[in-house]
Specification:
By secondary structure, this protein is mainly alpha-helical. It has helices at residues 13-21, 24-36, 48-59.
Amino acid sequence: MPRRTLPEAQVHPAIRATLADHHKDIVDEVVAAIAAHDVVVVGMKQNPFPKKARKALAAKGRSRPHRGGGRTGCRNRQNW
């Protein structure tokens, strides 16, 4: 499911690095999780559907470690 973004030519040069690095640690962590696991559930804490998806997977015997997290922007996260 590709995310729609502006072509780089339409992004002002002064903001390109900010866009490229915004939440890069989280994106890198998700990429690593996808490489390591056959099923990955990603979502924000206030969204109830990732929790429901984890419960449904656990009921099917497909539970995985839960990273935890918190609100968006929180830098106090647990490891996978």
